[in-house]
Amino acid sequence: MWIERLSDWLFRLEKVLAMILIGIMFVSLTAGVIFRYYLDRPLLWSDEVAIFSLIWLTFVGGSMSIKRQQAAAVSLLTDRLRGRWKKIVFIFGFAVVALFCLYLLYICYYWLSSPNIQIQRSSSLQLPLIYVYISVPIGFAFMFIHALSLFVKSFKQDPDSELN
Length: 164
Prior knowledge:
Layout: H1 2-38, H2 46-67, H3 76-80, H4 83-112, H5 115-119, H6 130-133, H7 135-156
Helix pairs in contact: 1-2, 1-7, 2-7, 4-7
């Protein structure tokens, strides 16, 4: 189905983004340490770049954890259920995650469309903070697509098989 293909494509994109963001964080922090302690010329922007990369990585990684079903979960109930009831609980869970992501996308729309967001800039780089803030709705949009894909996939799965 198209939603599963879209989810798979997004997951591949997220893996590439995660590798790039980790690389940026590594280079930025390493350069900051080298310039501060070995060259006595601290870089003012290296920490800011690392923090912004970490923010993006948080939302990209969170989306990846939904796709792989590795997000933190309390599985006390699902560990005890079998068959049809387990499938029903999983379907309900995927629906709740998808609806929660949609709700947060709605909130993000109003947050990011407020006038004061458009003029905020970072302290060192003077980068418009909208580039950092946009990671939130993008991450939740990706999470929504993954949750919707898992929701659809769970209907097709045999009730006695594991949902993976």
